[in-house]
Design brief:
The complex is a heterodimer of chains A (246) and B (212).
Chain A (H helix, E strand, L loop, with lengths): L9 H32 L2 E14 L10 H17 L3 H17 L13 H7 E4 L6 E8 L2 H23 L2 E7 L5 E5 L2 H26 L6 H7 L5 E5 L9
Antiparallel strand pairs in A: 1-3, 1-4, 1-5, 2-3
Chain B lengths: L1 H4 L15 H17 L7 E5 L7 H14 L4 E5 L18 H5 L7 E3 L2 E7 L8 H6 L1 H11 L4 E5 L8 H6 L4 E7 L5 H13 L4 E7 L2
The chains are: A alpha+beta (246), B alpha/beta (212).
Chain lengths: 246, 212
Amino acid sequence: MKLKERRIGLNDFLVVIRKFYFLIIAGALVLGGAGWLTASRSVEENYTASSMVYVQTVSTDMDIGTSSTETALARALAASCVTVMKNDALVKNVRRYFAERREDSPEENWEDLSVYSDSALLGMISAYNEANRQDILITVTAPTPSLAAHLANAVAGELEVSVVDVIGNCMILPVSAAGTATRNRVDARRSTALTGALLGAVLVYVILVAIRLCDRTLRRGEEAEDYAAWLPLLGTVPNEREGEEA
Amino acid sequence: MLHLLKKAPAMPALLLSSDSPKLREAYNRIRTNLDARLRGIACPVVGVSSPGEGEGAAACCENLAVSFARLGRRVLLIDADLRAEVPPALLSRPEGGLCERLAGEQVLPLSVEVCDTLWILPRGHAEGNPTDLLGGPAFLQVLRSLAEGYDMMFVSLPSVNGYADACAASSAMSGMVLAVAAGYTDRRRAADALNALYNVRATLLGTVAVDR
């Protein structure tokens, strides 16, 4: 005796939302909340300060001033500087620069760089040279505003020593010093919570759909009738339990 | 594995103790459909079983008996579920019943106070194998002897898949009703039960779905 197999239809996917929307919402809330809490731990603040320097080639002929060839060379040097500046020599010079300032001007509270490793210091520093320009923008992102500003100025000051030695035949002139550092706040709580909520809802939905598709029970009276089409369904008894009031 | 997570349905509401119009109407409908299928049979004997345990067959059987009794028919409800640890409330009587009758004692059915046209025959005290008791000629003889005093009889039977009792007793029935619990009865087990009854040439009257 053959019995009909259940057909999987769109209703199987929609009915899960209708019947278990509260579980889907709960899943979204749980994972969204977990995402918020996790992101709350990694909220960090840092400060950014910038200084600018200008790359000038040293003219061989003092009478005719800067030629177009020299300008092009200076631009190429500026681009090269950005590439080669982040090296051990720069870090070494910056450390020395800070140490000297700490001794000369103790009232300015220059930071002790010994707590930072070379790679950490290099990671704080970035440089940018726009195409066909001779200036270099030095940006420092550091945990404190004063460190950011001091480091930006120190890099600008020591760039000539650390780079010119490598490239040669050029001067690096300071254009602007770093003043007040700007505060950056990296706060991913909202996006993480939203991602978590979405994931939670999808996860619960997928689990519920999987359970429904794996469910081998007869769900309704009509399904029982459909299952064994030759056997009539005499009726369906409503969902009432012993002791319940009408 | 999923069936392990499923809770057995709670005890379904009983017509005798419930005022629910929805429940009454549901059984009126089942009664009408069943009545149409039993037309022309003098004192039909309807066996009620289910594919597995706890799927509401006993309550369904009791409610069907009450529903027909309320129509004015003289109905006898027989508890032939000799496997259940605890009999249904209505059939839980200390007096002797079906088993004593099968042993040859003249035990009479008991009347029910709240329903004038309903009588019950409790299971009594079983001695011997229930399948042998229900599948033997004595059971058919008892049903025939009881048929004279009633318009119809309902027999509560154990689950089809659990024991052979229902299949063994089905030959003495005018027809069988299978109760399935929606959201609980496994499709494969329902198919097994239907196949088991089909194989013994039982007359299947239909199914009753008990919603959860």
